[in-house]
Amino acid sequence: MDRPRLLNRRSVLGMGAASAAALVVPGCSRGRSDEPAPAGPAKFVTGNAGGVYAVYGAGLSKLVSEVTGVPMTPVQTDGSVENLKMLAAGTADIGFSLSDSALDAWDGAPGTAFASGPLRYTALARTYDNYVHVVVPTASDITVVEHLEGKRVSIGPKNSGTRVVAERILSVAGKTGVKVSPLYYDLETAVKALKDGLKNPKTGIDALIWSGGLPTKPILDLQSTIGFKLVNIGNAAQKLASKRFGGYVLSSIPPSIYQLAASVPTLAVPNYLLARRGLSDSWAWWTLNTMFRRQADLMAIHPEAGSLDARSAIATMPIPLHPAAERWYRNNHI
Prior knowledge:
Blueprint: H1 17-20, E1 42-45, H2 52-68, E2 72-75, H3 80-89, E3 94-98, H4 99-107, E4 122-137, E5 152-154, H5 161-172, E6 181-183, H6 187-197, E7 207-212, H7 217-220, E8 228-230, H8 234-243, E9 249-253, H9 255-258, E10 264-275, H10 281-293, H11 295-301, H12 310-313, H13 323-331
Parallel strand pairs: 1-2, 1-3, 5-6, 5-7
Antiparallel strand pairs: 3-10, 4-7, 4-8, 4-10, 9-10
Helix pairs in contact: 2-10, 5-8, 10-13
């Protein structure tokens, strides 16, 4: 399968790209370690049912629980915004977030869900990149973002990173932005509503916007039912990437991922695996160690686990690595 590679960044932990290229990455051995087992259970906040966060997070939780003998419980959520708030409040231990939402929360950015003040947490790794999907049925006459004007569009749950990036894309599309009738559906509800839209436009939707890894299975499955195409958002993506350095990168979705006729220009958004401040060294170390040493097992759960690369995993700036994560990387010659 041809698929995008994780988008790397430079100068991490005082090392340039040339030094990073010489990394010695741990193998897939299950191995042993003197690191003590965690003292108690942990909660891993993931994302929407059917999305990569939920699948990947459940798989990683199972493996970490197996390795440590201590339960790590995956919890499905709306996604990045909810996860960040839970991590900052200490009601979750580990969780996924899109980098743009994580940076908004870290800065307490005005006009965002975090405008009341900065949130604090630590990082374990940069894991893989999300890709913005603007999905319409094959029979739809929508071909560019501007055609969404006035349409019923699912832009993701209210506390999701999908909603954040969807609203930003719509705000920069065209000359003055594109106004839609927004629906805040989770992924599975949005997919169902897109199917319904062909029969009943008043209750269904015309399009769904989703930010997810490749492939996102509920979207992939649409090809065997109604069929779908992805809308080219290249112009809006370019505007947004130029304004949000570090959070968004221009990229494309290869045709083989979703059985499409051609690649589709879009926006890539890095994903971070984050931890609450004060998380025990044992949980941080064992989570990271399991991700790398059981990577083949994780790839069998979801192919995005294959994007994990120690050369880019440490690129979580400005969010600092958890001390145990930094120790793990340094002890493994990073």
